[in-house]
Structures are given as C-alpha cells and as structure tokens.
What does this fold into?
Amino acid sequence: MRYIAAPWRADYVRRGPTPERCVFCEAVRSTDDRAAAVVWRGRHNIILLNRFPYTPGHLLISPKRHRADFAAAGPAERNELAELFQMSLRVLGRAYRPQGFNAGMNLGASAGAGVTGHYHLHIVPRWTGDANFMPLVGGTRVFIEDLDMTYQKLRPLFDQERRRRERAGQAKRRSSAPSR
Ligand SMILES: [Zn+2]
It folds into this structure.
C-alpha cells in the first residue's frame, strides 16, 4: 500500500459532496438501474455495485436520503439496512460461493471514506488467497469479471428475493385476513 500526500483533497473534504454531486444520490435519482448499477431499491435504502470493486460482487448499501451520520439514522432506515445486509450475504453466497465476507463503513474522510456526505455499507466477498490473484498493476486492480457481468449475475438473484418476499407477504395477508 502506497500513501501519497494529497493536500488538494483537504478542500474537497471540507466542501463535502452535495446531494447534486453525490454518486449515491445520483443512483437514487436514476431511472436506469443498469446504468446506475442498482440491484435493489428498498423503501429507505438502495443496493448498488461498487464501480471500483475490491473483489467481484463488492456491494454497497446506502440510504436514499443524503446523510453522513449513520449514528443519526432513524429506526426504519437502520432496520431495513440490516435486512438488506442479510439479503446481500444470501445473494452473494449463492452467486459466488465466497469463503468469507468483509463488511463495514468508513465514516469520515480520516477513516478512508471516498464519499463523506452519504454513508454506505461495504460488503466484500472474500476467498482464501484472493489478495494474491488480484495483483496491483500500475495502481489498478485487475479483475476477472467486469461490472456488467456482475450486474447480470446478481440482478436476477435480487429479483428472485423480491418475488419470494412478495409471495411471503401475500401468504401473510391471507392468513391474517379475518375469517367469517
Ligand atoms: Zn448523497
């Protein structure tokens, strides 16, 4: 890992991205899921592919509202995030059979957040020795899968999850309907 002094970043960080210039807000506003790499739109959060994946299948879950502070997230936003986190683990498990996952948030520029104004949860599938088959070449990671391929693999699995949820919701409504 190389570290370079980047004093120009200080200005960027101080200003912080506004909703107009935020990649997550852009994805929320987009009507083209594929172009925006969005695989799931929930009530409060979206799931999208990281355009600079650490490993194939690297997902991001972020709230629809432009907010930096996860500690201030409301219960609805927070609970749905946990639900979508579980769903993402299921989907990635089926699609890639990873041997493990890294998941977490970089909150604040000092913690390494690329976008500081809009919190997001990273979910990264891991395989034993994966750091070895992803060499850094001229600072660019080399992958065996491009983003479009990842999208084509994951979107149908998320759609399956949606249908399963809809069926479960219908069954629940039927069973809770008052009997006469
Ligand atoms: Zn935003």
Observations:
- The first helix runs from residue 8 to 15.
